[in-house]
Amino acid sequence: MFKDPMTGTPGNGYVVHVWLGSPPQKLGVIVDTGSSNFAVAAAPNPAIRRFFQFQRSSTFVNLHRTFAVRYARGYWDGELVSDILRLGVGINGSARVQFAAIYRSGRFFVPYSNWQGILGMAYPSIAMPPYHPVEPVFNQLVRETGIRDIFTLTLCGPIVQSQNYHLHDVDLGGMMTFGGIDHSLFTGPIFYTPIIRKWYYQVALTGIAIGGRSLGFSCDEYNQYKTIVDSGTTNFRVPESIFNRIIAFARSMTSVQVPNGFWEGREALCWEANNAQWNGFPYLEIALDLSDVNKTNKQEHGQFTLMIPPQQYLRLAEHVTVHNSPCYGFGVERSQGSGIILGDVIMEGFTVMFDRENTRVGFAASKCASKLFL
């Protein structure tokens, strides 16, 4: 097992560092469990400060296959290449892997962010291009290095670097492990839910409640399209009908005055620093199907519930402050036809285990998240 510290900025995702080429060049890549391609910038771009300079690597090989990838936001065009990859701390040696060198992109890279590529961690079935997909880099690492087919994400949420609040002093923190589980990162038991289809990390959501009150939808209604665990998505995304009921319940249970457009994502809620009124908001509760490993009786039907406090689902707003005090947005939004997405809003309270050996996703209460919120 080896591990890699995670960094980032609010709204721009979680980043790990990789070393490519010979001699190694350090690059930041955003960790995305909702896609399967590993790709890095290989040409100058006004939005980024560095890129992979393949001409300086003695082990670089151009495989002369061009392809393009389109995301919900942005795209890139690149070429399939091969070079030596070193990842994290603790790995024995390195591995030659295939990946995409990005030469052209649009609305993909984020100005002033600290990443220059993307590390897609999902299954091969959604790798691009569809006619001749590139093997995901984690699959390559498992085969080449002999590590176990397991990785974990511990997303710790925003960390304030200064007593005097300022957005420039706020970073995201966390830890990623490859090839095993680091039990020092969490406390209590691990609750597993089965992966029901190997493409995205698709799971079965069995219920949603606000402040202990069920929304009242059936399991079939929740899973009509798909429910996925996706670190590349910031918010908790749900279909229109579910979203409308969430905000109706949340409004009725919130004792704090909020702006009219807050629940719809049009306005931010601002508090004086160190005067956040978390107790005025209800918990968000998400129930998932329970894996057999957690059941005392294999024939029983079971579920477990992720308790999401307002400190998680109220998201620190980018580039928005009032008198240098933090502002927050509602971290739940409409999914616009893509089913339900358990994004960073949900994952930040937990160490999440992507146990591909046993086709399941595990959740355990992380040690970092509860004490790092503003």
Shape label: globular
Number of helices: 5
Query: Main beta sheet: strand number and arrangement?
Result: 6 strands, mixed, barrel
Give the fraction of residues assigned to helices: under 10%
CATH fold call of the largest domain:
Cathepsin D, subunit A, domain 1
CATH superfamily of the largest domain: Acid Proteases
CATH class of the largest domain: Mainly Beta
Tally of domains: 2
Radius of gyration: 21 Å
Topology:
Blueprint: E1 2-8, E2 14-20, E3 25-32, E4 38-41, E5 61-70, E6 75-87, E7 95-106, E8 117-120, H1 137-145, E9 150-160, E10 170-178, E11 186-194, E12 197-198, E13 201-203, E14 205-210, E15 213-214, H2 219-222, E16 227-229, E17 236-238, H3 240-253, E18 269-270, E19 284-289, E20 303-308, H4 310-313, E21 314-322, E22 325-330, E23 332-334, E24 340-342, H5 344-347, E25 350-355, E26 360-366
Parallel strand pairs: 3-8, 4-7, 16-24, 17-23
Antiparallel strand pairs: 1-2, 1-10, 2-3, 2-6, 4-8, 5-6, 6-7, 9-10, 9-25, 11-26, 12-13, 13-16, 14-15, 14-19, 17-24, 18-22, 19-20, 21-22, 25-26
Q: Can you give a write-up of this model?
A:
- There is one protein chain.
- The protein is mainly beta and 374 residues long.
- Helix content is 9%, strand content 43%.
- It has a 6-stranded mixed β-barrel. Strands 12-13-16-24-17-23 form a 6-stranded mixed sheet. Strands 15-14-19-20 form a 4-stranded antiparallel sheet.
- Strand 21 and strand 22 form a beta hairpin.
- The radius of gyration is 21 Å and the shape is globular.
